[in-house]
Structures are given as C-alpha cells and as structure tokens.
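Notes for week 9. Today we move from apo structures to complexes. The key idea is that a small molecule is not decoration. When we ask for a structure prediction with pyridoxal-5'-phosphate present, the ligand SMILES becomes part of the input, just like the chain. The input block below holds both the sequence and the ligand string. Read it once before you look at the output, and try to guess where the molecule might sit.
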Amino acid sequence: MINKSDYKNIYEQDMPLASMMNRDMYGIIKWCTPSIHPHVSRINGIYDNDISISYHSLGNPSINTGIFKKAHNLASIAYQSEHTLFSVNGSSGSNFIVLRSLSHQLKKVHMLAQRNVHKSISVAAEDYNIDINYLQPHYDQDLQIFIPNTIEEFVDGIKKHPETNVVFISNPTYEGLSIDLPRFVQRIRKINPKIVIFVDEAWGSLFPFSDKMPTSAMQAGADICVQSTHKQSSGLQQTGMIHWQGKRIDEKFVMDSYKSLITTSPSFHLLASLDAARFLMQTQGENIINDLISVADKLGNELSKISGVKVIDHDFITKKYSQVRFADKTKVLVNIKGTGIPGYEIAKNFESEYKVILEKYEAENIFFIAIMQNTEYDAIETTKRLKECIEKLSKKNKRSKIIFPDFPLEIKKSLSSYEVINRNIISIELKKAIGLICAEDVVPYPPGIPLIAKGEIISKEHIDYMNAIKRLKGLISIVMSDDKIEKILTVK
Ligand SMILES: Cc1ncc(COP(=O)(O)O)c(C=O)c1O
C-alpha cells in the first residue's frame, strides 16, 4: 500500500516534466517568450476537445482545405501576403518547408546568407544539398550581439557569387535589429530580378501592426518569410506562419513541402491559437505594441538606477551602425560589466532564487523581452530583485570573474556542409584540430549561432572560445558531438 506522502515522490520521479509544470510554473516573472496576451481568445478543453483530421467535414490543414483554408486566408489579409500557412513546428519547421520547396523549385540552390542563421537553416541546407555562402559577420564584442550586414555587402556577395539564386536574411536579429528592408529588396532586384529573397522573420511577427515597428518582409516586397507567432504575438508555443507573394515562389512546391513535412496530426489547439492570435493583432495590435514599448521603457528606466548596470539605448546602436535602421523597442539589452559579476551567474541566480526568467544572457550582458503578460509592476519588482541579487552576489568571496574571449568572426569555408557527410570523419582533441576542416556545427547557446559550421576551417580563436565555455562548466552550453568539449569532429 502506498502512503499519502509517497505519492508526491512517485509523481516527481515518474513524471518529472509533468510534475514540474503542475508545481513550479506559478509566481514567476518572465521576460522571455512566449508572449501571450491575457485577453487573447482562449482555446478551451486542451484534453477534452482535441480532435483529428478524421473529422473530415472540417477540411485538412496539410492540403489547405475547409476551415483551415479560411483561417489561412484571413491571416494572409492581416499579414499582407498573398498566401499564408500555419506551422505547428515554429520557424524551425517552417525554414525546412521553405528550403525544401526552394530546392525542388530551383533544382540547385546557391544561397547567399548572413552568418547569424538559425540552426534549422544550416541543417536544412545540408539535407537539401544547398550551397550556402556566408557573408563575413559583424559582431559587437561589448554588447555581444550580431550586427546585420550592410546592403552593399550583400550586393558585393552577389557579385562575388553570381550563381546566387536565393538571398537569405534573418531580419530582425534576435535582439531586434532591422535593416532598411525595402531598400534591400529594391537593391537586390536591381542586380538580378530573378533572385528569391527569403526572410527569416521569426522575431518580426509584431511588425505589420504598428508604425512603431519596421516594415515587415511582406510589406518590403520580399518573396517569402517565416514568423514565430509564439515568440511575440500570442500564439501558443511552437506556432508560426509562412507567408509568401509574387511569381518567384511556385505555390505547388510550397504546398508539396508543407504537406510532406507537417505532422499528419497537428494539434487543433495550436492551429486555433494562431487564428486567435491573428485576430487579436489585427484588431488590437497597435495598442498592444504601445503597451509593450511602455513596459519595456519602464523596465529600462528602473534598471538603469542600479549601480553598475547600463541599459543600452536603442539610438546608441542605430547611430553606431548605419546599416541598423531600427531597433525593436520591446527588447531591453542591459550591460552588467560594471557590476563585476558575469551575466550567466546573475541569470542563474535570478532564476533559482528570485524567480525571474530572462530571455538570454551572455558574459557581460543580460537581455529582456517585454511580453504581453508583463506589467509595470513586473518592471519595478524585477528591478528590486535584481538589485538584491547583485548585492548578494557581490558579497560572495568565491565568484567567477568576467573573462571571456571575443567571438571569432573570420569564416574560412572549405567544403559545403552536404559534402562533408561523404568524407571520412574523425574525432580529434581540440588543440590538434587547428587548421583542419570541421565536420560538425559547433553552436554555443547563447547566442545559438554557429561558432564553426560544418565544412569550415577550425582556427585557434575557435578553440580558445570553446575552452572558455568549457571552463564555465555548463553556465553557457555548446551544442557539439562531445559534450565534455574535449574533442571535435573533423574531416580526415
Ligand atoms: C532567427 C531565428 N529563426 C528561427 C528560429 C526558430 O524559431 P522557433 O523556435 O519558432 O522554431 C529562431 C529561434 O529563436 C530564431 O532566432
């Protein structure tokens, strides 16, 4: 017979994730995705009302019929596209759908891309034999963020690689930096009107709904884009949209990839949450965005009162980098170098002791996103807790110093990633790998952007950066084959 107190232990041991969700997800302040408006229409009965495509009269999402087609069409009006599809595997899944469809339509894709691509792009490129030429990136080593490439760098890239038939850009960047997208589109069209412009707009789902946001990919005239509705626009986790327009995209290839890659059992709750999110943004988007900016402003003003804490002014970034036309004001980047405490220690402590979750942290910076659940009270309370957290950590004798090398920027491509798979691959000690061709993507989180991509030459700077992460013992993670960060896969 199990006694009553054992139930708790059984629950925690046997269902760690389920018990955590039912126990711990209360009373926390979140400055991270998903952004869910308290008044977005709720989809009821997550267990009781779930259905499947066996309910034939509703239509079928994967071939875009019935009620799904109706919802997609309404979304395409709201997002100003010609076609829209809902995704239940975030922008990660949408990027696969788009790249599969382009590789079938164009036969061979030669893609010019900014370096700060999400891993779904690099992995899909490998799977679909896509040749990617990355532009040399810009990275602000103090703010620890990627800075977009200039439009002229893209133009030069096309001249250097005249075979380019797709130009890819993540716009805005994770931290909300956006280029002048309409000019970018015009400039590329002028050089070669056949080139497909594909925008990863995972962080731009708010853009079509306010003048305080930059021009969206569809408004700017891009051909196709993906968005993560769950990140900033009230869709449930995993939800996103694919939008496209114009003649450069052949609908039959997109539909074939959508049908092939989307699960045959998509959650109707997730799909319906996209319909509700679209309606909310279409009817209330402008006010909601004003509220988000005002909460973010409040947070920035409050945090800047803490000694050693510097809230980065958006204008500072747009003035420093002329290619940055716009910075998303719902995002708050905070440099904490002046406190002497590493960002990863602050973030870890803030989460475990103070129940405040940040979107991202680096060695010298922490990053907040104002989401639709946040209030001005959260801004005041977060500041109070952060001040206390920093004071407590300052008194600790044994705390780590901020020592972190610069993020290595030089890219030396030797092979395309899909060519690496057919070579002999060996795992080798880090220090012996300098000068060899890397046979895996090495991706530190944060920032989630490849430090080395498959097919590139490994440098001493890469190894120094990996060793710095290794010394942090898990405070910053790195995705690679050897989780002990001792060996790396190379081409023999
Ligand atoms: C630029 C970019 N693209 C795609 C993704 C993947 O989005 P999702 O989490 O919706 O799959 C991310 C995730 O952070 C991202 O930053």
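The mean pLDDT is 94.
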